[in-house]
Amino acid sequence: MPNLRDLVAHTRKSSIELGLLSIDRRNQALVAIAHQLRTHQEQVLSANGADLALADDLAPALRHRLKLDEKKLQDMIKGLEDLAKLPDPLHHRTIHRQLDENLILQRISCPIGVLGVIFESRPDALVQIAALAIKSGNGAILKGGQEALHSCQILLSLIHQALTTVSIDPHCLELVTTRAEIMEILQMDDLIDLIIPRGSNEFVRYIQTHSRIPVIGHADGICHVFIDREVDREMAVQVTVDSKAQYPAACNAVETLLIHQDIAPEILPLVVQALRAHQVEVRGCSQCLQIVPDLVPATERDWAEEYLDLILAVKIVPSLQAAIDHINHYGSHHTDAILTSDPRSAQEFQQKVDSAGVYHNCSTRFADGFRYGFGAEVGISTQKIPPRGPVGLEGLVTYKYLLSGRGETVADYTMGKSFLHRDLPL
Which fold has domain 223-366? Predict the structure, then answer.
């Protein structure tokens, strides 16, 4: 059994070979993985059942993420098949420039190399990440939550079998299972090119401060919906309920609802009634309690809380600007939405809210790589530099500069020779 460093070194070697494969070969791998999942559904569900049996003390939101069912499996299979239909992210020429008569510069997209992806208790995330890595020509070292161990092991085993059937080295993807291995991986800046952690704020910050490897991702998903004073009431209720109750354990579920004071007396009772029909606990500010007295009183802590559960904090604000200020102060720069019939308010909100996703009249739950047409995502990044938002294929490639000449030297250009800098067709 190789030690961890040897295993990662093998993944790095395999990733170079993977990045050189044709798009047809990489797509064949995705289709083969989909076939393996379709053929071995019972094995996957059985392994997931073993994880669930050991997870009695898991928080409801995490247990929801951990659980696989036939629908999630079908979604995984469809995601693989859809990803196989997307264009090749590699080998795109984005600069083609004649520096001089025989000196030609190109900028070409290429894989990043080896990804280290540490994700939460969602075993379906393993399939999404592996698929994106294959399509983008990257190797990956994967670390799922310990509570999903059996699920992750069977899924990676099926992926390895699929890769073998299309003659791709399965070691381009490897699974590690212990916290000690994470610590060891964080020191391998000579072998791993990018770390993508998915977990708590504390965990992500820990990763960022304990590795020299670049890190992308998000720590919290404190998302907001703001109901403006001019709004379609039915639409506002519908979008709020979807943003919270459709899948509350997701990082793009709304955690705080802001309501303009001019419409609060009318809209708040409607929203509360609809949310309670979906078993959502509603916590309200002091002004909310004056309108709906039996709400749970909200505290300062609620404005910065990611519940990942059927709980929603509600605050009444005096203006659009107050809503923007609240979001920029308490939010995590993930995804925030305004519900309004006023296009000027929508434009101001989308310009001033400092988040990766800023929506108008739609659910925050749309913040997702699959829904964006990326095929899948390895995570959502809230950092300012790219990639930002859902990280799909485009976020997993970099580029290199290729320069070809006929013996040119820099000395020629220090002696008076001039560059042409003429752009050529891409």
Answer: Aldehyde Dehydrogenase; Chain A, domain 2 (3.40.309)
